Amino acid sequence: MRSGLAAVLFVALVTTVASAGTWAEVGDAPPLLPGQQTAGSGSLNLITGSFVGATDVDLYEIKVVDFTSFSATTVGLTTSDTRLYLFDRYGFGVTYDDDAAAGIRQSTLTNQFLTANGTYYLAVTRYNVIAGDASSSYIWWPNPWDVERAPDGPGAGNALGGWVGASFAADNTYGVSLTGVDFSLAPVSGACCVGPACTPNVTQTDCAQVLGGVYQGDNTDCFPNPCTPIDYYLDTHTAEQGGTGTPPMWIPYASGWLNQWWPNEFALDRQKEVTLSFWIGYADAPPTVAVNYSRADWTDPQSPPMPVDDAYVIRVPLGNFGPGYYTFTVLLPFCPAWVSVDVMENGGFFSIEGTIAHVCLPLPTGACCVGDVCTANVTQTECEQVLGGVYKGDGSTCVPNPCPPPTGACCVGMVCTDNVAEADCVAQPGGVWKGAGSVCNPVPTACYGDADCSGAVNFDDINYFVAALASGEPGWTSYYKSKHGNLDPPCSYWNCDANGSGRCDTPQAPEVNFDDINPFVAELVTPPSCP
Questions:
Q1: Domain regions of the chain by residue span
Q2: Taking the chain (531 residues) in consecutive chunks of 10 residues, what is each chunk's mean pLDDT?
Q3: CA 65, 70, 75, 80 torsion: positive or negative?
Q4: Which CATH class, in words, describes the domain spanning 232-360?
Q5: How many angstroms separate the most distant Cα atoms in the chain?
Q6: Model pTM?
Q7: Calpha distance 47→332 (Å, rounded)
Q8: Is 7-183 CATH 2.60.120.380?
């Protein structure tokens, strides 16, 4: 393979030249007419591109503006063994060069075969790819290699129809330096998207190669912004308007508002979160922006409240806004059938564009206590009506457990205490827990130990107490009657329950047993004050 120049020289020269008037190959330039158009302003000084594959040919449309000074060369701009071909606007050959001089494997074209200004096509390829007509006849003979020539092959009188041959060199980059040449097209510009940001009036090349963006097409602009989803836009000066609403337009109301509506899930027991983000591009006078929604009694899913139905519209003004970007989140008390963006002109033109997000929030949940068992993420209705529990509030959780253990009455001997948890009760010596929700019984009106109902505790009570101890309440009643002319006892059997243990029974009932003997003796020794 024939030798070429050093790659380091190519890099240095391209860096120096490619500062202005440069066309960089976009994708892979086609090998046949109409080639790849070069678009830009002023002189075209440099074309850069790449050889990819053994048969790659890149054909560029150029405009020769001074044929007397025309030149094209790859010398110093690539390490590849190149060939340059020039065709007129109809595809007929004009001039060709393989090697610029003996020992130089890059190519140079001069003005010696040009006779007029106009549109031409410049082909860049490598040795040994040869221009041919539609029948693959050579338009130029391949050699002599180091002489620039007009068409001299068997297909010299025919237009370019294809290419013959292939290169066995590695893929590489190249540059072609030009004089006497302008871009073939005046620059066409449009909108360029770099992420959500839009830049107007950018050429396709600058968008892709300078900004690293996505070109939106010739003559496109940045209103509405094509780089991000837009739900609504309005320019009151140019009358440009639209959006994704229902209908996708701004509706004027007698109150001066312009509305665009979006349908929603309707629910009275849930809240609606509306997020409004918008950009005010210009404003002769800051417009007013609002979020609005249909009243709870407007449930038509097919149509929003129109101007004649303005009484069914609830508006939440957000303020007056000059140029800039704004975001607001509004929480509505229920999920209306329709939500809207509202704008009002305040004496001057303005433009607005933006997005609206509207979500019908789920019902709030929290912790639910059923006894000491906590259930998380339960609505208040589910907690109270389904689980029969106690709702601990919106957003509450089960960590730590907000459900206290159930409480009830706790009896320790004759002492009863309310609102004691079972574990705390039984931890006390002799503690007896009476169950969840139980309460201490009222202390009976009794004179403990006054078994004969005399109103005092003394030795006269002994036989009556023994009757109760032996035969319970029936035996005590029978004994009393036998001593008092068959009259019923005028006092409660509680008087015989010397230790009062029956007060902790459920149901409450006096108990007289051997546990009462010592308390009874103590009451005989130290009589209590009877009620």
A1: 7-183, 189-218, 232-360, 367-404, 459-525
A2: 30 36 94 92 94 95 96 97 96 96 95 96 96 96 94 96 92 96 87 92 89 91 87 93 92 94 90 93 95 94 93 95 95 94 94 92 90 90 92 92 88 80 90 83 75 91 93 94 93 82 63 86 86 70
A3: positive
A4: mainly beta
A5: 159
A6: 0.46
A7: 60
A8: yes
